[in-house]
Structures
1.
Amino acid sequence: MTNYTFAPAPVFSLPVEGAEARFPVKRIFCVGRNYHAHAVEMGRPVDKSTMKPFYFIKDASTLIESGATVPYPCGTSNYHFEMELVVAIGAEGFRVKEADAARLIYGYAAGLDMTRRDLQLVARDQGRPWDLGKNFEKSAVCSPLVPMGTLGVLQAGSVALQVNGATKQSSDLSKLIWNIPELLADLSQYYHLQPGDLIYTGTPEGVGAVVTGDLITGQIAQVGEVQLNIGAAE
Ligand code: MN
């Protein structure tokens, strides 16, 4: 048995609906600007004919399970929700063809890509990395996973989010600019996708700020619901 100078970090994992075993999370990839109406609201429209998807990464340690209460994060005064379909990878894939992409999918979840929008926009506009805006503690919220089973490769279904019960986001997976097979084919040109990887597939329009005391609820049709309570600042 290996001796360590201190206890190694735990394995970050998610529950799986209908199963006792948990899904160990390896990496968290996030897709930027993958719904036209959101790209427009961010002032950066997308032309699929000339552009490719882009990605950023959140550490696995940013994962937080649905239902948690998180402190209002440090360093921001514009803390935003982004409701997203999460694709969980269950098999290795490198340079995968779109037609073979379903083989990689373990299942799905409903996720929140929580964002320090003020810091993200400063970084974006200065051509700097987005880490301070995106890759911070407890920023990757995720529901229990639903195995792919008979769902197949999701192509349509509502994506919705409410703050304190009031609808803020309402769209459909059919409006993804790059769909699931296209994303898996593209991302696997750059990484050897591995079991345990999660892919947050991007948010539709209607992103906005939350404050201490708010309750976020979000749903993906056929997949499930994610919830987050915003606690006091530390
Ligand atoms: Mn996002």
2.
Amino acid sequence: MTRKRVDLIVGARPNFVKLAPVYHALTRPEGRLAVRVVHTGQHYDANMSDVFFQELRIPAPDVFLEVGSGSHGAQTGAVMARYEEVILRDAPDMVVVFGDVNSTVACALTAVKQRIPVAHVEAGLRSFDRTMPEEINRMVTDRVADLLFTPSADADENLLREGIAREHIHLVGNVMIDSLVASAAGIRRSAILHRLGLAPKRFALLTLHRPSNVDASDDLRPILDALGTIQGRLPIVFPAHPRTQQRLAGNGNGALLRDMGAVKVTPPLPYYDFLRLVSEASFVLTDSGGIQEEATYLGVPCLTARWNTERPVTVTLGTNTLVGNDTRRIVGEASRILDGAGKRGCIPPLWDGRTGERIAGVIESALT
Ligand code: UD1
């Protein structure tokens, strides 16, 4: 009997970390399905893509759509057109999409229109902020998906409130944490602290890439003002996303950062190095979604440079505090942490490194 076939779709950096555990669980020796990895090419640089495949032991994609960068419409449309050609030639029995990037919604829409069932990993997260492109991607993807894999109970509640039937919802836990657990040895081996001349717990880690923080100079400025104060107390490492690098180069903020002697800007870092920095940081200041969760798992205080989060358990149970782009708030919370009063938090239920297995189990039962 021929095996049923599943496409796993990835496009952007955070997808790779979510794909790996599901890929490994589905392709274990006794796995019952044939798996095809489809990379849309939304992220294409070696340090935004290839290195994650290597470190997370994902084989080279079976299909590469090479869409590259573009406006939301152009990028989403290009993924749809190219993925449709692939499935018209060779249709899988199910399409699995991850997270909330443009590639996620594009492939979900394409599949459902070709009557191929869709599974969404990391379903049900809501920031309730429709100015965030990811929020639109989440809502649309969940609406068309048949299997909705949620990381936490709040996500189930969101979906139920939106009228999605309970039998479609599977609370499986946080798949990103699986990658973190599986990579523990590689993360420990990373020599990044030595390379950057940092001492454990004596530095802060910064990431910024949300359009709402980096696209307009006026939005970024209050965060940079806060850094100017914080760097007086400890060095700050800033692996800068390509979007952020471009914006900094295009206005005076790049020079402002360069003038801060204790802020070290680096290119985007590989997974092991980056997670080593998270685990050894005194605190993290970020606008990323995933890093809020990784910091919570590692028990490292996280200040989130946003006014909302689609991951509320990181605030209620974890180490996360929302600080927006308010200079006083950022400096105040950073000082509290440095004075020993940072949030300790606990690990949310089902963030146990076994989410990929649970997802694979549900997909296999649905298809075989
Ligand atoms: C995307 C996701 C965001 C995710 C982030 C993680 C959407 C809507 N956004 O945002 O949810 O948190 O990835 O990184 O899907 N670029 C490069 N090299 C690359 C990739 C991008 O130079 O390998 C540059 C391009 O010039 C591009 C810009 O970065 O225009 C932004 O890339 P894009 O994929 O559009 O969105 P991100 O900001 O990365």
3.
Amino acid sequence: MQKVIVTGGTGYIGSHTIVDLMQNGYEVICLDNLSRSKEYALTGIENITGKKPVFYHVNLCDKNETFRVINEHKDAIGVIHFAALKSVPESVEKPLLYYANNIDSLLNILMSVKTFNIPNFVFSSSCSVYGNADELPVTENTPVKDAESPYAHTKQIGEDIIRNYEKTNDTQSILLRYFNPIGAHPSAEIGEIPIDTPNNLVPYITQTAIGKLEQVVVFGDDYSTRDGSCIRDYIHVCDIAHAHTLALQYLAEKRNANNCEVFNLGTGNGVSVLEVIHAFEKVTGIKLNYKIGPRRAGDVVAVFADNKKAASELKWECKYFLEDAMESAWKWELKMKELGL
Ligand code: WQD
């Protein structure tokens, strides 16, 4: 059985990716410092797959710790690196925490990949590297503009580090730029577990619907869009997860054109905030308490992906739609209440 190391594996996208990898026959080694996730994710993974991944509670900002763990699994065919802090507002408030954590952990994991000759590397990047894109839909060749936040800047720096490393090394790497991940595994055994009040739209909706929060505020309905609210490319977390398995197989089978390729992971459809809210209400039958409020600083009016490259080269297609994501997000919110998470 081929082995894959997943950092940040108890996190939202990491845990869903571990399920997909295990269901595709891989043995998974999960690394996480549990600073923004819960060990419960391992139980949820086991409830779905019948097996718990090998887990290391490790601080990837500690080079010795990182090397010690990776050395024990240098027979892995690849590393998928999710571990990072990802709150945009927190990164604005604490930029040095974000630069130190996200860059140091990437450097340590990349140095261990080089030292132990692990052949393949998949990096969790973000559509936020594009900043306020001039053209839509966004393709992998859309120029990267100034980052809107220190978080987005750490993703731009991370991509540059890997790109420059690859100029003189032959690790095969892929940078996956996610658009807006939403939803949860259909089993409701795993999902996003916000540590504090969520910043993102969908967990804010489900927490309002279940009564944890009072009301959703729509940050502006006076934008130049079809209904005045911002447009995003909301993509089901299970579709994102499967793209990681396909990316690893693409590298392992040496189908890649060069040793550092970029792929957008989005549905290709732009959806507005109000359309998300109405989809949630339609799927759940719940009338959501929301109001229109002022714009949020830093929001781009519209961004959505051109996903043709991932479709053609990774043989990736989206299997879930907005309504599926709303249903699974709600089922997971109900399960978290039951579990006391
Ligand atoms: C979506 C839309 C808000 C909350 C962020 C990161 C990005 C990526 C995805 C990691 C916007 C509106 C939100 C609310 C609202 N993460 N909104 N009321 O900002 O598009 O992207 O998450 O890679 O890096 O920047 O996501 O969910 O915060 O907002 O009206 O209570 O929902 O204005 O238009 P965003 P979001």
4.
Amino acid sequence: MADAEQPLAQAPTQDRSLDRDCTTLSRHVLQQLQSFSSEAQDLSALMTRVALAAKLIARRLTRAGLVEDALGFTGRVNVQGESVKKMDVYANQVFISVFEQSGLVCRLASEEMEKPYYIPENCPVGRYTLLYDPIDGSSNVDINLNVGAIFAIRRQEGEDLDEMAQDLLQDGRGQIAAGYVLFGPSTMLVYSIGKGVHAFTLDPSLGEFILSSEDIRIPEHGPVYSVNEGNFWQWDESIRDYIRYVHRHEGYTARYGGALVGDFHRILFQGGVFLYPGTVKKPEGKLRLLYESAPLAFLVEQAGGRASTGTQDILDVIPKQLHDRTPLFIGSKEDVALVESFIQERARDQQDQMAAARL
Ligand code: AHM
Ligand code: MG
């Protein structure tokens, strides 16, 4: 047969799994921004650094039971008054080391450090601050259950080396990226740069985070309520009313793992609400605004859900101090609204009672 009559060589069949394997985190960030501007390059580099920190922490956690000095307490108490675990210290240091080399981050602030940590040599060019909780849910570490890390990136606006970090005392709408790492059966990194929420799974054979779920949308309503019911008698009556409501209605199920990232992850994918209300002893609750509640609020809003203190959107809260806490109700729109309705109803009743008492 003459050459001209030969059938065209068939294009190799497209291998979808190969395509997927090539969607790494840094490529995804650049695709999202559709630009090679310096800000896009910065964000891509920052996310790659967060991914490196995640891999280092995951490696330590995977072998924690076999390594000297990986588990247990240090004997110290942090600025929050909580006992510090060895893994908290390690993970905190991992983020510092990783970002010291990045050139991009001038300042880090974390749950484990009373004051922000400056990297002076980065400050002339490093235009960003990283806020993070290096090990969230650290009570799970010693028993090999899931833990997480939470992060947010903000533009650095303050004076270089300002220990008070006044410019960080702003609402959460100025976050330019936020996310978390879930150290579970697989290690997952979920992030948003304000263009939807995307999940990546660490493929240990490649050492890369590969896109596993794009544009995650949280259901409008879900069956799960996630709360530490051991605090029942410490809560305001409105929260007790809400819990009594879910006990009395079909279609609800309780799930609580003691690590916010894991509990939030379930709700992000399956719907429902996570609650950490104020208690008698701690009216502001336990969770910290800048590096726990606000980053997750940024994510949940990007996924179509809500995060509230009960009376205000979390992203509108302006902290007075670096380590401020807030009550947190986060998850599906309808479920957060239902919790808020109990809080509002109780507030109205109290106002009516006070008005009646004045008569
Ligand atoms: P941590 O960051 O010091 O570990 O504390 C935060 C954790 C959250 O992950 C979790 O939702 C909560 O504390 C659990 O608290 P409790 O044991 O009071 O239910
Ligand atoms: Mg935490």
